[in-house]
Every structure is written in structure tokens, then in C-alpha cells.
Amino acid sequence: MADSDSFVQEVTEEVRRDAMYAAWRKYGPFLVGAIALVIIGTAAQSWWKNSQKNAMRDAGGAFIEAQTVEDPEASAEAFLALSSENDGDYAAMAGLRAAASFGASGDVDRAVEQYQAVASMSGVDKRLIDLAKLRLVMIRADIMEPSEMVDALQPLSVPGEPWRSLALEFTAAAHVRAGDVDAAVGSLSTLASDESTTAAVQARAREMIAALGGTAPDPVIAPSPTATAGGSGDEDSESEAQ
Questions:
Q1: pTM higher than 0.90, yes or no?
Q2: Residue 28: which pLDDT band, with cuts at 50, 70 and 90?
Q3: Are 213 and 181 in contact (CB under 8 A)?
Q4: Pick from 25, 85, 21, 24: which is nearest to 58 by CA?
Q5: Which of 133, 64, 72 is CA-nearest to residue 98?
Q6: DSSP-assigned letter for residue 122
Q7: Each residue of 115-134: pLDDT tens digit?
Q8: Do residues 67 and 41 lie in contact, with contact meaning Cβ atoms separated by under 8 Å?
Q9: Helices 54-66 and 88-105 meet at what angle, rounded to 10?
Q10: Crossing angle of helices 54-66/33-50, nearest 10°?
Q11: CA dist list (Å): 173 to 22, 30, 166
């Protein structure tokens, strides 16, 4: 469970640090080639380090080697080959990286094709499937209707989903594009009030709410394990009764 949480947190924070604040200030464009390079590169290395199987380790080494290819088109083809030569999670990661490279080379159609291929894979870690779905929205944001974006992001925005905070941020951006500031503030307020998000994410959400002219909720502090374990059950019961 710790590896799973670490993977999601590492990738999500890389995405935010490199792209989200700039994208919000401009309200687009949503496709930034560097995002995909960071997302998939970090995912591959994290998976490789945590793998105990020789076959997975070999695939991880080949994946990292493919990252040294500088030309986007050649890189895309290298990752496509890796995807076809492997299965499961590594095939999905190679497909994601191939899609990112196609996007970086300007071949959006092939990028979309690869993201769709990963999103339809079976027997693959759900986080990778959902990441492909998120990237599909990002790369097609300039041609998607805001309402279509919101619909596509909704399943990724529910509590417990690994990319929920990113999906909420892009949902809010879609509402901004549609001119629905109240809905955008609502999505950001949900994010700012989510105890499962970091203080930095909550702070950024409040900044965006203020920029949109809304009223941000108060900062939320997640309860500490000690407080949760040692809190009074009687007080909780009394509060619920009231």
C-alpha cells in the first residue's frame, strides 16, 4: 500500500510542479509535452525500482534506455516497439510514453490513438488506465466541448480515485472555458476542502478561487493518526446525535 501511495503522490506532484500552475494562469493550453515526459518517465522508474521479477527488471531497463532517444518520432517508435514486446503494466507504460512522444512531435492523432489503446487495455493497473483517460482529455482539450471534458473527467474526480485532484483542477478549468465561474469555484472548493490532498494543493486551489473572485473555504487540516486513534468515541456519538 505504501508503494501505491508513493507512486501516485510522486507522479501527481511532478505533474503539478511542472505544469498545473502555469496552465491555470493561462487557462490553456492543456497539452504540454514536458508533462507527459515527467509523468511516464517517473512512473517507469518507480515501477522498475519496486519490481522484484527479472522479466520486469529487464523491461524497466529497456524502458529507461528508450528514454535516451531524443528525437520525438524515433522515441515514439521505440516505445511502440516496447509496448508490443511486453504485456501488462509495462506495455501500458510504453504505450503511454509512445503517446507522449507522438504528442511532442506534433502527431496528435497518433497520440490520441495510443492513449485510447492504453485506456482500453485489460489486466493493467487501474492507475495507468485512468492516467491514459486523463491524458486524452488534456491532449484533446482544444477541440473538446467543456461539457464533454467535464463528463470525461467526472469518473476520475470521485473520492478515492488516484488522479482525483488533477481531474478536479481540469474540471474547474473546463468550467472556466465555458464561462461558468460558479461551477469552477465549486470544483476548486471541493479540492480545497479535501483532507486527502496536500496543504500545497489546497493552497493553490484557494489561490485560484480568489483569482476567479470567489470565496475560498478555510484551510483543512487532516486529522493526525494519534488524534484519530485517541479521539473520544463518546464525543463523536454525541455530535452525530445532535
A1: no
A2: very low
A3: yes
A4: 85
A5: 72
A6: S
A7: 999 999 988 889 999 999 99
A8: yes
A9: 10
A10: 150
A11: 12, 9, 11
